[in-house]
Specification:
about 130 residues, alpha/beta, Rossmann fold, about 25% strand
């Protein structure tokens, strides 16, 4: 599926999927930068309420998202929750954009054909297919 351009002129909703153990800093940076650009970004640490049924809230946020940024790290590769988020977004036809957060991270099979974005400390760089 080709992703439509990410234009902040509309109410584009972006869900950020990541593993807390090694992707939290990059997730927070992306959330902050995208929010400053006018996007409605969903990050669990800022949107989940204490007594919430977190799986339902995550499902709802995924279903309402126009885009899902998938932060690929060692932690997200082994996380069942991260894989479930990725697979749900793909099944629902949501545009999934993988961001390689660590250079030697393996890529889940279901994301192998997607265009990757590689993160560096100062910026993000689009590098092509996995």
């Amino acid at each position: 599926m080709l992703c439509p351009p990410m234009l902040p002129s509309g109410p584009s909703r972006i869900f950020i999927s990541y593993a807390r153990r090694d992707g939290a800093a990059l997730a927070q940076r992306l959330q902050s930068d995208l929010t400053k650009q006018g996007f409605d970004t969903w990050l669990d640490t800022q949107r989940l309420r204490g007594a919430a049924t977190w799986t339902r809230e995550i499902e709802s946020a995924l279903d309402q998202a126009n885009y899902v940024l998938v932060l690929l790290t060692h932690g997200s590769y082994i996380s069942e929750i991260c894989r479930s988020e990725q697979l749900r977004a793909l099944r629902k036809g949501t545009c999934v954009i993988p961001v390689k957060g660590q250079p030697d991270t393996d890529i889940p099979l279901h994301l192998e054909a997607k265009k990757l974005i590689v993160s560096r400390k100062s910026d993000l760089l689009v590098v092509g297919k996995a």
